[in-house]
Amino acid sequence: MASSHSHIALPYRIMFLYIEPLAAFFGTYVNLTNPSSYLQSLSPSATSTTYTPLTYPVYAQIAGHLLLFSWLQAVLLRSTASVQTWKIVLFGILMCDILHLYGDYVGVGAMAFFDPRLWRWEEWVTFVMTYGPGAMRIAFCLEVGVAEEKGKMKGS
After folding, report:
1. pLDDT-derived band at 3, boundaries 50, 70, 90
2. Which of 30-34, 108-112, 123-127 has the highest mean predicted lDDT (pLDDT)?
3. What mean pLDDT comes out for the span 121-142?
4. Model confidence, pTM
5. Measured in whole angstroms, how far is the alpha carbon of residue 11 from the centre of its chain?
6. Are 59 and 38 in contact (CB under 8 A)?
7. What percent of the chain has pLDDT over 70?
8. CA-CA distance, 37 to 147, in Å (whole number)?
9. CA dist list (Å): 65 to 7, 11, 31, 119, 139
10. Rounded to an integer, what distance in angstroms lies between the CA atom of residue 8 and that of residue 106?
């Protein structure tokens, strides 16, 4: 497998084939088994009594989206060495990142969103796991650190 993806820089492979699929799968598990915890991680004003089982279908749907992200990265990206396919998948997830960050902005408010001193540990995890991979997705789509499939680096 490594040789078929050797034109894709190792940090991309580690993030998009291992770290993110595991994180998305964990998010799937949390949404299905403890949606109240998921809600509290996204909204500082939420408490364990804020969650109502009537909203469980929403969390099951979020879990479905996270499971799809996990599968796309762990299975689809592993099955192809096509940079074009990787770019299509990663750009699609980037669009989700943007909406995820918008939801975080609404959830924590502008002041806390832009001031890391006000972040709870939940915001640190959420923002780092969204901004970092999001920046990597942008870099990949711009072909930073991506070699041509014949072994020559783009732009060289």
Report:
1. very low
2. 30-34
3. 94
4. 0.86
5. 15
6. yes
7. 93
8. 41
9. 29, 24, 11, 26, 23
10. 35
Give the separation between CA 34 and CA 143, rounded to whole angstroms.
Answer: 38
pLDDT (tens digit per residue) in 44-57: 888 878 889 999 99
| Residue 152 tokens, joined | 């020559």
d(CA 99, CA 103): 6
Residues 109 and 47: beta-carbon distance below 8 Å: no
Quick check: 82 and 5 in contact, CB under 8 A?
A: no
130: how many CB neighbours lie within 10 A of its CB?
A: 16
CA-to-CA distance for 86 and 77, rounded, in angstroms?
6
Give the DSSP letter of residue 138: H
Residue found under tokens 């408010």? 109
> Alpha-carbon distance 38 to 27, whole Å?
8
Integer Cα distance of 130 and 24 in angstroms: 11
The 10 Å CB-count burial string (b at 16+, else e) for 80-98 is ebebeebbebbeebbeebe
Helix, strand and coil in the chain, % to nearest 5: 75, 5, 25
8 Å CB contact between 86 and 94: no
Dist. CA 22–CA 20, nearest whole Å: 5
